[in-house]
User: Fold this.
Amino acid sequence: MRPFESRCTDGGTLVLDGRVRAVFTDRTGEPPDRNFSYDAGDAADVSEARNWAAALVGARVDSQVWCEQVHGARLARAGSEQAGGPGGEPLPGTDALVCAETGIACGVVAADCAPLLLVAENAFAVVHVGWRGLVAGIVVSAARSLRNVTGADAGTFTAVVGPHIGPCCFEVGRDVADSMARVAPRSVGGETSGGRARADLGGAIRHELGAFGVRCESVGFGCTMCDRRWFSHRRGDPQRQALVVCRVERHGG
Assistant:
């Protein structure tokens, strides 16, 4: 396992480790407020944003695969056969992608849910994790699929949980709290003054990964609802940021 290097760039945070290049986008940079969701904003602007991110991580703009994102647990293999043209077409019904090819940009969008990166020696996974996907088992499914694809032990994987809503702002009803607690008992804290529970989505994801043997690295992202560097659905933003990842060609020994 090699540690990730992370650095701020125009419009996001680059994460690299010699196996992948990834960008967790934010609202900074030029143009500001890049939106990655076709459900909000001008399609040409979204396509331009996705092409910018694909190029930033080292992929051709015509080699993109994106999740449709339905808050479920369906995962798909992503490669040259699935890659769409510039702007990227989504794979229907998917909330996670596993890719073992170099040069393919794989993306998920989010705005309070967590974009999750899992990296193995010869493949990676990108995952969109909200509370529904968490409860449906998408975190473990992605880690298990990556293990099946690579044949490697999960203890050799590395994960980064991207910017998401924090327990400071993630207030949920008792039904959601009970569902999350069944997955990760310590992910639900005390009640708010309004009688709702505080939930720790990131903590629940890290619990699931740790139980599977995957090591998480901290990049120091904040809460999407507190910090206006990111879009937040709960704050009323229709736009979405993205996680875009490409496996890089390795040279030499």
Notes: The first strand starts at residue 5 and ends at 9. The helical segments are 43-56, 131-136, 138-150, 174-183, 201-212. The chain has five helices and 16 strands. The two ends are 16 Å apart (CA to CA).
